[in-house]
Amino acid sequence: MNSNKTLRDSALMRWIALILLSGLTFATYWFQDFMGGMQELLSTEYGYTSEQFGRIIGMTTIANVFGMIIVGGIILDKWGIRLAGLIFGGLATFGGLVVYLASINTFGSDPSTKIWMMGIGRMMFGSGLEVVCVVATRTIVKWYKGYDLALAMAINMGFGRLGSAMGIAVSPDIAAGTSSTAIGFAASLLGLTLIMFVIYLFFDVKLDKQNAGAANKADEEEFKISDLLKLVKNSTFVYITLLCVVFYAAVFPFIQYASGLLVNKFGFTSVLPESAAVIVGGSAALGNSLVFVGLFLFAICFSTIPPTLKSKKARLSGRLIILLLFSGYIYMLKDVFEVWLQNGQKTTSLIPLGTIIFTPVFGSIVDKKGKAASLMILGSFLLIFAHLSLSVFNSVILGYIGLLSLGIAFSLVPAAMWPSVAKIVPENRLGTAYSTMFTVQNWGLLVFFWGIGALLDFVNHDKLQAIKNGTAVYDYTIPILLLVVCGIISIFLAFKLKEADKKYGYGLEKPNIKEN
């Protein structure tokens, strides 16, 4: 029996593979979102308007709108994880380098030139970003199918959200008044984590050799265009794809503008007082980063350690001990958090921070209890509540609750959605399925990244000059109310998924872990 064991049967090796893969996820999410924490700095340094800022961010999706992710998915299904990861991870890293070179005037100092070159760099980065996400998701299925798949995907997402949270919150500390410093750091992260992926490839090669004797012929079939057409004709796949589009369109673009909303609407600070910085080794950026890492480690421990304990009493005791230690950690830093929660960038990081804490927990629930479609419905309701709290009402307390609700929704829906795709689509076509979802998702993101910025300028057109002079502020009500509509559509699509599951028996409401 031991001769049939492979690397994926070792919990330690699965963890090593997951961490190596998640490094690139961390870096790509950092680079995707870090500019959201520097919107005001970019406006001050280069004179960018909300529309120009949205244009740069929106360029991240442009190549993917025209099918780059589908091409990447076909390459993934046809030539494998290793080649696809190297090609598109390298493309994302090179795109990050172009953005950095533009920020230090390599292509010229004219602001309009910087906009276009940063946009081109973001386009290259985005072309690699989404395929890297597909590679990571597809690879996790390879290592974890039949094990705690949803938890593994949730932890990978947690690394991504940690990158988003730290990118938004820490980049202003790294920049120290000069945006190119933070851009260079974000680009360097891409290069370092690409090296981590190269290290992972050695394990991937060994696993493939171990599986060679038992390879399923279905997994070796060549890709055919008809397979893509079959996905499009699968109504359940269409529902989950559209849910992916409208849900993420209500979250990712909002994150880019959230700190501006908090500063303009609720009067939050845009510059963090030095007294609120956590200094480690003489660096506020390092100290503040470690605060987020600490929160992340508590979330991972809470979702992974108690389930390994044998008795119910031991599991309960384990959770209580971790919660007590977590409470002590929060109390120790209470003065820091009190100031952070009055700062736009740091408070915006509550959104991905909520996912860091809750996604592994919800992933574990999906693995053991199921109810994926029901959790997607709940997450969509929370999405609506969050955007109503932040657009219609002027209560700061309700705004905090709204941000936390958005973080929980951002945990619930992905933790349930991505593992569900593996139940709807055959494993050997998952690369194409995930890449198709990411492509359609990018159509929505392109519209909303640029559209929110353009709509902000449009609804505030009569006071744009006053806003530039600092005598007026943006009104975000209408742009954020638009995101409430996305939440309503998400609920409808989640109910359609639940209906399809009852009709076709995909098992979306059933646990992922198989009983022995």
Question: Can you give a write-up of this model?
Answer:
With 516 residues, the chain is mostly helical. It has two domains: 11-207 and 226-272 and 343-504, Growth Hormone, Chain: A, CATH 1.20.1250; 277-342. Helix content is 78%, strand content 0%. It has 22 helices and no strands. It is globular. Mean pLDDT is 82; it is low at 213-222.
Give a topology summary.
Layout: H1 11-33, H2 39-46, H3 50-58, H4 62-65, H5 68-79, H6 81-103, H7 111-144, H8 149-175, H9 179-211, H10 225-233, H11 235-249, H12 252-266, H13 284-308, H14 312-332, H15 334-340, H16 344-348, H17 350-369, H18 372-391, H19 396-424, H20 430-459, H21 464-469, H22 477-504
Brief characterization of the structure:
By secondary structure, this protein is mostly helical.
List the quaternary state of the chains.
single chain
Distance between the termini: 16 Å
Query: Count the strands?
Result: 0
CATH arch. level architecture of the largest domain = Up-down Bundle
Tally the helices: 22
At the fold tier of CATH, the topology name of the largest domain is Growth Hormone, Chain: A
Low-confidence stretches: 213-222
Return the structural class: mainly alpha
| Biggest sheet statistics | none
Average pLDDT, to the nearest integer?
82
Principal-axes shape call:
globular
Radius of gyration equals 22 Å
How many domain regions? 2
Corresponding CATH superfamily of the largest domain:
MFS general substrate transporter like domains
CATH class of the largest domain: Mainly Alpha
* SSE order, one letter for each helix or strand: HHHHHHHHHHHHHHHHHHHHHH
Assess the beta-strand content as a share of residues. Answer: under 5%
Q: In percent, how helical is the residue content?
A: over 70%
